[in-house]
Amino acid sequence: MLEPLKRWAGELKAQVVTLWFCRRDPRTPLSAKILAAVVVAYAFSPIDLIPDFIPVLGYLDDLILVPLGIYFTIRLVPAAVLADARREADVWRAQRQAKPRSYGAAGVVVLLWVAVAYWAWTVVRERL
């Protein structure tokens, strides 16, 4: 039962690394570059938008947002760019074992949480 999930997770990781190379290719349209950057940053961020310790919702964002982002981004990338990026990603993954991290995306997630906390604090303060 766990083997198909491990394969699927490995495929997602491969797709995210492929998008990482797509966003660097000058042949990639700007809209695809922006969406790829967002998907890659979120997928490689060490901090999730919804923390994993929250039951069900914590993993739901990873199970829905990342695959949807991959799907829509791949549809925007030209086939030749995608094929080249897949080759680069396969070579990269064969040489490295560690997953890249996006600390910039982690910073954005932290800022979002701080903004939500500040908003909630102002709403509660006004009602008291």
Short description:
By secondary structure, this protein is mainly alpha-helical.
Question: In words, what does this structure look like?
Answer:
It is globular, with a radius of gyration of 17 Å. With 128 residues, the chain is mainly alpha-helical. The protein is built from five helices and no strands. The N and C termini lie far apart (51 Å).
Task: Estimate what percentage of residues fall within beta strands.
Answer: under 5%
- N-to-C order of helices and strands: HHHHH
Largest sheet: none
Total beta strand runs:
0
**Count of DSSP-assigned helices:** 5
What's the shape?
globular
Percent helix: over 70%
First CA to last CA: what distance? Answer: 51 Å
Mean pLDDT: 83
User: Any idea what the radius of gyration is?
Assistant: 17 Å
Q: Stretches where pLDDT falls below 50 for ≥5 residues?
A: none
What structural category do the secondary elements indicate? mainly alpha
List key phrases describing it.
5 helices; 128 residues; mainly alpha; 77% helix
Please describe the topology of this protein.
Layout: H1 2-22, H2 30-44, H3 57-76, H4 79-95, H5 103-127
Helix pairs in contact: 1-2, 1-3, 1-4, 2-3, 2-5
